[in-house]
Amino acid sequence: MLPAPSSTLPQISPADRAALLDAKNSLVGNDLTRPLEPDVRRRLAAYAATIDQSRARATSGEIAREIAALMVAFRSARSVSKEEAAATTREYVDLLADLPLWAIQAGFRKIKLGEIADVSLDFAPAAPRLRKVVADLMEPVLADRYQIRQVLNARVLPPEDPARAAETRKVIGGALRGMADDLDKRNRIAIEAASPPKPAFKAPTLADLQEIYKTRPLPGAGARNGQRNDDRNGDVTLHGAGPT
């Protein structure tokens, strides 16, 4: 079995992980809706400090020793000359110089165990690929650090005042209704402007109608007018009666 990394790997307990998630969920913008418990704040601050300490760079000698141990795992690396091995080591050291020892050890361990899918078990990875393996291991830890700093530096919002909250909702609701009415008015104007013009039509007045029907009978009134004229002239015909 491979030995575990000798340097300290930052760890967060499940309880603190849950507390950090809960605090993140209570953020509104950059403000907390409820304060952190003092004990939770202390533990998260301690974990963030551990992460800061763990970011210390490995020395060139430490990196060179880890590279030498890694190369032993690859048969192809054993057949190179001393000069070539030294040049390869310098290239690795140069690309890993800004990374911490714990991340280098953890990344190399994953490579030896075959846990990195696209890294060959027969040939040593190139220096850029090796750096990416190590840097990827650091991302979750650095994400924890960022989130903890965000939570610890957040301002705690004061408790909500029910009366003030109701007044705020009223003001906001009125503003929204006004915006909706204005938008509806603008839409109607736009629709009317885009519609074809309606034909001009003016309903006739009573005087116009009287003038029109001076010279023409009202609709359906011709027979009734004739009957009334016959009555006035005394020319009445009784239906069914014979001549006298």
Structure description:
This protein is mainly α and 244 residues long. The chain has 2 domains: 14-156, no CATH class; 160-196. Helices cover 60% and strands 2% of the residues. It has helices at residues 14-25, 38-54, 60-72, 82-96, 101-112, 127-152, 162-194, 206-212, 222-233; strands at 27-28, 31-32, 155-156. The chain has a 3-stranded mixed β-sheet with strand order 1-2-3. Strand 1 and strand 2 form a beta hairpin. Helix 2 (38-54) runs antiparallel to helix 6, helix 3 packs parallel to helix 5 and helix 4 packs parallel to helix 6 (127-152).
Name the average pLDDT.
Answer: 81
Number of domains: 2
How much helicity do the residues have?
55-70%
Instruction: Write out the strand line-up for the largest beta sheet, numbering strands in chain order.
Output: 1-2-3
Strand percentage, roughly? under 5%
Q: In terms of per-residue confidence, which ranges show pLDDT below 50 for 5 or more consecutive residues? A: 236-242
Helix count from the secondary structure assignment: 9
Radius of gyration: 47 Å
Principal-axes geometry comes out as: elongated
Largest sheet: 3 strands, mixed
Number of strands: 3
Structural class assignment: mainly alpha
